[in-house]
Amino acid sequence: MQPRNMSMSGVVDLAAVKAAQEAKAKAEQTRAETARQGGAGAVSPADLVIDVDEAGFEREILQRSAEVPVVIDFWAEWCQPCKQLSPVLERLAVEYDGRFLLAKIDVDVNQMLMQQFGVQGIPAVFAVVAGQALPLFQGAAGEAQIRQTLDQLVQVAEERFGLTGLTVDPDAEPRGAGGASTAEAQPGPYDALLEAAVRALDAGDFGGAVQAYKNVLADDPANTEAKLGLAQAELLHRVGGMDPQQVRKDAAERPADAQAQIAAADLDLVGGHVEDAFGRLIETVRRTAGDDRDAVRLRLLELFEVVGPDDPRVAAARRALARALF
């Protein structure tokens, strides 16, 4: 799987938004399930540093990045700077007490992973959060710089993705050799339906994804992942049937037409122009009244769900909407 770059500055990327929403919802579900089972799911300090190869990459890095930021240390036995950096990272992994997981990859025996991440030289340190790859630094680095980078990573993982890390218990039994868990996680009651929805989204079957998410919500109306997924799937489904040129023309010619502005705002968001989409609808709220105004307001709230409530642009737009309404 080719890693993708994650923007820590919040640049709009529907794929990243989708991953953030799914990771946040999955983390919430995991915590709730753990609480219901009466266990903390604690790990041993020894489990905070793992060796990973190509066979275990998806399981130990991609999947686990949905619950904890995974820092990757690309190293080799012959690399002297690696021998200086690796012990620092290992010590900090324990010191940070589960706020990140350190995965060590030997480039001599994992050339494919080195190429996928675009590693040009070692030592090289990356992070994966919610399936999104992020370069941290390459070459020698002082401990102060490393700590600053890790602090920023942990903050972004928690604030944007809802990942609060692992619970560490010094008395817990370490996992088996190679990082294999002693107990396989059991799928949740809606995992199959949610996975079907994700597959439909990836295949461009937006109508199928909408129906799959609705199937989950019909039985579990409070399901966070399904609500967030439905908002995105409905947006993509709407835009898929549009003529962009005509939509833009209609919006330019009819600035007070609620439906014309709603359609243009959908295109704005899919195109990555979040502030434009929000601003367009807020201005339309000011220009309209009655049912038209309510329709614009409701669509704006739907787009807030797509972007995510933690995005600062959503908070700013909510304040602007309140001023426009009152």
Topology:
Layout: H1 14-36, E1 49-51, H2 57-63, E2 70-75, H3 80-95, E3 101-106, H4 111-116, E4 124-129, E5 132-138, H5 143-161, H6 191-202, H7 206-219, H8 224-240, H9 244-253, H10 258-270, H11 274-287, H12 290-307, H13 312-325
Parallel strand pairs: 1-3, 2-3
Antiparallel strand pairs: 2-4, 4-5
Helix pairs in contact: 1-8, 6-7, 6-8, 7-8, 8-10, 8-12, 9-10, 10-11, 10-12, 11-12, 11-13
Proportion in β-strands: 5-15%
Helix proportion = 55-70%
**Measured distance between first and last alpha carbons:** 49 Å
Basic shape: elongated
SS-derived structural category? alpha/beta
Query: Can you list the strand order of the major beta sheet?
Result: 1-3-2-4-5
Number of helices: 13
Spans of at least 5 consecutive residues with low confidence: 1-13, 177-186
Order of helices and strands: HEHEHEHEEHHHHHHHHH
Output mean pLDDT.
82
How would you describe this structure to a colleague?
With 326 residues, this protein is an alpha/beta fold. The chain is built from 13 helices and five strands. A five-stranded mixed β-sheet has the order 1-3-2-4-5, with helices on both faces. Helix 3 links the parallel strand 2 (70-75) and strand 3. Helix 6 packs antiparallel against helix 7 (206-219), helix 7 (206-219) runs antiparallel to helix 8 and helix 10 (258-270) runs antiparallel to helix 11 (274-287).
